[in-house]
Amino acid sequence: MTDRKPYRHRFPLSVIGYALRLYHRFPLSQRDVQELLHERGIQVSHETLRQWNIKFAPLLTEELRHREPRRGSRWYLDEVYVEVGGQKHWLWRAVDDDGAVLDILLQEHRDTRAARSFFVRLLGEYDVPEAIHTDKLWSYGTAIRALPVLHGVEHVQVVSAARGNNLVEQSHRPTRQQQRSQLGFKRRQRTHEFLALHARVSNLHRHTRTTVSADRRRRNQTETLRLWREVMQQVA
User: Is residue 206 part of a domain?
Assistant: First the structure.
């Protein structure tokens, strides 16, 4: 990657990309990232980091989404309570049968209208699935019946307490970690932008986990870093 400076930016792409990757890859606050950059001799304020996120997060999310491979044909959906600015919200999440995040949507309600909005959003990006796995929230079934395109799709309902929807429930854990590191979420739009990019970055690093050999993991990490630099170059 050519280490150029984006228009009206004091720091080069390598610094901006490194800071954003740290923030979205690990459960760090902006002040944590500021300290890590300071350790490397880079003096950046946490406000500068915030502005980088506001500018680049939506662009990176979209670019990473376009580069993702074809996803599985079974959807696993779940919703989790998230407090944003002291107000109750619900984070709707869908993953495929391999655990990759398909999409997220932050909404104020947990009803049929919210479920239908999430299904419409998913259908705008992906093919009609073979099966949809959800918990027993009645809103899912009502929303599926309200969308003719989903009438032929198998709807599998599981009991959350039995961990039958474990793929998507496990996918919520990094969100909770980030929420704690940031001492809670403050604004709805910024929260959604952050969580959307966080999900794409999680997908990007899925193959760098310890479930593969050390040599394979290092190769995957190298490829992941190369792709991240390429994406930064594209959006800057």
Answer: no
